[in-house]
Specification:
Number of helices: 5
Number of strands: 5
Distance between the termini: 30 Å
Oligomer: single chain
Order of helices and strands: HHHHEEEEEH
Largest sheet: 5 strands, antiparallel
Structural class: alpha+beta
Strand content: 15-25%
Mean pLDDT: 82
Length: about 180
């Protein structure tokens, strides 16, 4: 009986994450399909991918690139749109753009005695332009969320972590459960 329970638990550890991943993927695909009003599952996602590639090709072309840059400039000047556009653009660039920001994983000491600390990512290594010379901005992601906090701390409280930033992000987002290289 103990062997059957062990097999069940082992099978559950494999099938449950796979089922959750498949379910969320299916929901996301159906949501995109619903937005675009298509009935064939996945056609909306495919159309979105093709559209993004098309826009990327236009932006890379010398002639049409100037039109895309002009459109971006317009979006960056409209009051409410500017906030949404630049924030989402900066966030996306932080993860996958040429100006990646989540590359330096750090440990931030939160208490005077060093007993309490948090893992995060330096997003700005100089805040002198804000009148905070000697301080850095550290992004602390929240577990099981894409949200997080930005804290301002003296640079002396930040220690680089000798680990891959993607592994550190996975560790934080999983609530400390996920570890690679075990």
């Amino acid at each position: 009986m103990g062997r059957i329970v062990r097999y069940f638990v082992q099978g559950l550890l494999i099938t449950a994450p796979a089922a959750v991943t498949i379910w969320f993927s299916w929901v996301a695909i159906r949501w995109v399909d619903g937005l675009l009003g298509v009935r064939f599952p996945g056609a909306g996602l495919l159309a979105t991918v093709v559209f993004v590639i098309f826009v990327g090709a236009l932006a890379s072309n010398y002639l049409t690139g100037s039109i895309v840059r002009s459109l971006e400039s317009l979006l960056e000047r409209v009051p409410f749109v500017r906030l949404l556009y630049t924030s989402s653009k900066d966030l996306l660039n932080a993860f996958v753009g040429e100006e990646r920001r989540f590359t330096e994983a750090v440990r931030v000491t939160l208490s005077e005695d060093g007993a309490v600390s948090a893992l995060g990512f330096v997003t700005s290594d100089s805040l002198a332009d804000l009148g905070l010379a000697g301080h850095v901005a550290v992004y602390l992601p929240l577990s099981y969320s894409i949200a997080g906090h930005v804290i301002i701390v003296p640079a002396s409280r930040v220690t680089p972590v000798q680990a891959d930033s993607a592994d550190v992000m996975a560790f934080i987002v999983s609530g400390g459960v996920s570890r690679t290289g075990r």
